[in-house]
Amino acid sequence: MTGRVVPAGGLERFALNSATTKHWPLPDLVAGCVEAGVTQVGLWREDLVAPGPTGAASLLRDAGLTVTSLCRGGFFTTPDWYDDNRRAIEEAATIGAPELVLVSGGLPPGSRDLDGTRDRITEAIGRLVPDALAAGVRLAIEPLHPMFASDRCAVSTLGQALDMAELFPVAAVGVVVDTYHVWWDPDVWRQIARAADRIACFQLADWITPLPAGVLLGRGLPGTGCVDMARFVRAVDAAGYTGPVEVEVFHEEVWARPGAEVLAEAVEGYRAAMAG
Amino acid sequence: MTGRVVPAGGLERFALNSATTKHWPLPDLVAGCVEAGVTQVGLWREDLVAPGPTGAASLLRDAGLTVTSLCRGGFFTTPDWYDDNRRAIEEAATIGAPELVLVSGGLPPGSRDLDGTRDRITEAIGRLVPDALAAGVRLAIEPLHPMFASDRCAVSTLGQALDMAELFPVAAVGVVVDTYHVWWDPDVWRQIARAADRIACFQLADWITPLPAGVLLGRGLPGTGCVDMARFVRAVDAAGYTGPVEVEVFHEEVWARPGAEVLAEAVEGYRAAMAG
User: Fold this and answer.
1) Count of domains forming chain A
2) Taking 90 as the threshold, does the pLDDT of residue B276 lie above it?
3) Interface contact B211-A213, CB threshold 8 A
4) What pLDDT shows up at residue B8?
């Protein structure tokens, strides 16, 4: 496979995030995307382990695929956060990902100091800014749903992510708008308008209930839940965002199905959101 | 048992919410509270079914117990919401509960219209205001954690609850501050200060992980999780709140234990929060 595949009509902004098809090995995912006329993928660092970042870059380039984002840096409460995040920035640069998604991590063990934790996250991001600028990779702060505040991400709203991002140059720090995490927020429409060129990554996943134990793997493919996807597309577009629209879903039942089938449904959900 | 029991030192503001000891029948709960020097309880409508509201009122009065709140009205998307909420107001008046907690309900089946749902909730509360004023019972809007937004409560933040409450007289509509639901909110301290005399009910429950499937029954007794309870006590006190401090926990493991034992731990958590 060489050369750039012309996308099927209307897929110009679609990107498959590899977490949606977690058990699809990278070479198969790449072939499947080419087959479906998909030209953009969001990747995770796990995807880069087997081929190595350089090998992954060749694989993607040869197939004409571009990388929209790399997940993830962050987890700033772990002891080796600085070195690990610098490696993540390098990996993003190597595969040509313009955005590195940051999931901040939650409270340190035994802590009840949420404000202090949030301050330390901001400081940590500030320390990474020079590395990000040097590498030409933007740090994309992702607010996660408040149900993850204690154990996964102390950044809980888009407004809060923007308060952090705006301390730094727009070329260095942006934010992620993931419908799954922010759909409930009465302030989200105002914050999306405020975000404007800080929107580094836009992801679709749907809210479905009941939530499973641990709540991490409860996301639905776009269109299967109660989120008004089309309204989010209109909102980010109105804010001036013209970048990719990634589908990123975590769900055991989705993961158990063939990658190509899931990709087709992700495309279908994307098309419905874009048409709405 | 007749006459008012003098509370043990420092328990003047403590209230046991009966959901914490779900399987303790009301007569046993009443006796257990008297035994422990507890003089205030928050009740649920289920507690009133066996004795009837008038019978429950007698039982409580004879034991010298006062009722801090009744849970719950709300669920405004169900067909009979108006009649059911009027009955709830009557029941609250009968047992002497000054506050009726409202859990609004989530999206109607198949709906993705969160804004519209929130507007209808506000309208429904407005329709109940005359009944509440006539009965001398305040409607207490409870914001629930955003993980319940779709299926249980579309009111997701304290700020949003206050936006609704402030449309009506302070004697008619207040808000609930439940640490479990609002602890993650970066704006909560400002909103508590704003709430002032709208604070109709203050409840303690702790955030513990991992969350169980369905996420309803994942709350910890105060002190067992990561919420800074003492900071919440200081915040509501600084806002001018002088009312009861209820412990309200939902957890299968807590429910499986003897009521008196759970009550003792609830008191212990309350004391730690008040001392902090």
Assistant:
1) 1
2) no
3) yes
4) 53
Tens digits of residue pLDDT in B147-172: 999 999 999 999 999 999 999 999 99
In this predicted structure, what is the pLDDT of residue B7?
A: 45
A5 assigned to some structural domain: no
A250: closest CA among A72, A61, A68, A85? A72
Contact of A154 with A117, CB cutoff 8 Å = yes
Distance CA A211, CA A218 (A): 5
Reply yes or no on whether the pLDDT at B3 is more than 80.
no
Q: Which residues of A touch B118 (CB under 8 A)?
A: 186
The pLDDT score that the predictor gives to residue B245 is: 98
Residue range(s) defining the domain that contains residue A147: 14-275
Q: Give the CA distances from residue A119 to residues A182, A222, B123, B174, in Å, rounded to whole numbers and listed in that order.
A: 21, 34, 40, 32
Domain harbouring B209, CATH code: 3.20.20.150
For residue A74, what are its two tokens?
């962050």
ipTM confidence score: 0.95
Count CB-CB contacts under 10 A for residue B188.
23
Average pLDDT, chain A: 96
> How much of chain B exceeds pLDDT 90, in percent?
96
Amino acid letter at A21?
T
Whether A7 maps to a domain, the answer reads: no
Q: Are B152 and B106 in contact (CB under 8 A)?
A: yes
Find all residues with CB under 8 Å of A253, minimum gap 6, and list them.
Answer: none
- Closest residue in B to A218 (Cα–Cα): B213
Q: How far is A206 from chain B (nearest CA, A)?
A: 11
The single-letter DSSP state of residue B5 is P
A92 part of a folded domain: yes
Torsional sign, CA A145, B195, B205, B93: negative
Indicate whether B102 belongs to any domain: yes
pLDDT band at B5 (very low <50, low <70, confident <90, very high): very low
End-to-end CA distance of chain A: 34
DSSP class of residue A78?
S
**How close A217 comes to chain B (CA, Å)?**
11
Tokens of A28: 């198969």
Helices A26-36 & A259-275 angle (0-180, nearest 10): 50
Q: Distance (Å, rounded) from C-alpha B200 to C-alpha B243?
A: 8
pLDDT of residue A9: 67
Chain position carrying tokens 């003492």: B230
For the stretch A153-163, pLDDT in tens is 999 999 999 99
SS3 A204: strand
Residue B257 has pLDDT above 90, yes or no: yes
Which pLDDT does position A8 carry in this prediction? 53
Could you read off the pLDDT of A25-50 as tens digits, one per residue?
999 999 999 999 999 999 999 999 99
The contact set of A with B (CB < 8 A) is 107, 111-114, 118, 145-147, 149-151, 156-157, 159-160, 183-186, 207, 209-215, 225-228
Contact A228 B149 (CB under 8 A): no
Q: Do B249 and B15 contact (CB within 8 A), yes or no?
A: no
Mutate to test the interface with A, among B162, B185, B226 (most CBs of A within 10 A): B226
